[in-house]
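Limitations

Structures in this collection are predictions, not experimental determinations, and the ligand pose is part of the prediction. Treat each record accordingly. The example that follows, with glycine as the small molecule, is included so readers can see exactly what is and is not provided: the inputs are given verbatim, and the output is the predicted complex.
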Amino acid sequence: MSFDIVKETAANPELTKWVNDMKARLDQKMTYGVKKANEVDYMPYSTENGQWKKTDIGWWTNGFWPATMWQMFRMTGKELYRDEAIRTEKMLDAALANFKNLSHDVGFMWLIHSGVRYALEKNADSYDRTLFAAEVLAGRFNPNGFIRAWNGQGREGWAIIDCMMNLPILYWASEVTGDPRYKLIAMKHADTSMQAFVRPDGSCNHIVIFDPMTGEFLDNPGGQGIESGSSWSRGQAWALHGFALSYLHTGKQEYLDTAKRVAHYFISQVSDDWVPKCDFRQPKDPDLRDNAAGNIAASGLLEIARLVPECEGRMYYEAALKILQAQEKTCADWTEATPAVFTKCTSAYHDIPGRHIQMNYGDFYFVEAIGKLLGEKLLAWYPNRED
Ligand code: GLY
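Predicted complex:
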């Protein structure tokens, strides 16, 4: 029997009160976020002076807003969230039409809202959008065993750990079409990632550069972390959560073992105050944090908790709660001073204007985690599953 995060939560009155309080606060804040989103003609991502900040339609984070709307719709039943999800899903067609500019981030951009809408409503356009996005991702596969991350000459052999979180759109495509090719590509990439990205101590590289002709490992630059060999916390969170999802979709035990290894490392690094540093190997000053890493990891830890046997689950569950509660207590803005919630997200260690900003996916993973604690069944990364 596996660990039951919903039963555990329901059995604890203080925790149940906190989770219900979060649901009410999210409802209030997201209603305000929708109002502000309807004042502009672009997709909400970050914020500036109390407004949503302008974003290019092809930006990789643009699926998270409609995805948050579906999570809120499921949590509250309020049509305003469904309407906003559908409005912004259509807005994103401009990015799909310009597909040559898309990167490997199409899982983030479509599975978690178009895939969810298709599961809920069998909408044919949503199916087409999600499958088209999966084709784009499959088309980036290099037969040496990895998915190319970004565009641009000279980056043919670049892969990044974040891609682990894009693989679920390939598993989805195999589920809905019955064609195993997509799943096989995802598993090849996951196998390569276990070898080339995850280090023996459970920390991970952000970027690995392969020779695109031979697949030989060439380099591992620091990427969004501080330097080569450092430990960018959001990269660790993508790995922890992404490997758990690959296990969920395939049942391959090594993926769960890898997710657990990264989780043990993550917990060991975050447990001083449960708000992740931007890079776990950064110097003391500046004290850079990343709430997005925290919420991605917390939601992933809840995923691991319910995948492992009952006697193992508590550690992952309790660590997830510690992160969610510490981040909410110290970094959440529930007022109308700004349309987003979390205030200490960091885009990359060396991106100075991108330090301690708001990012829509910092909020998305918090909403997702609260939904999991409340027993939400239809989730973004496996919209076809009801178990
Ligand atoms: N996938 C890019 C990032 O996490 O910033």
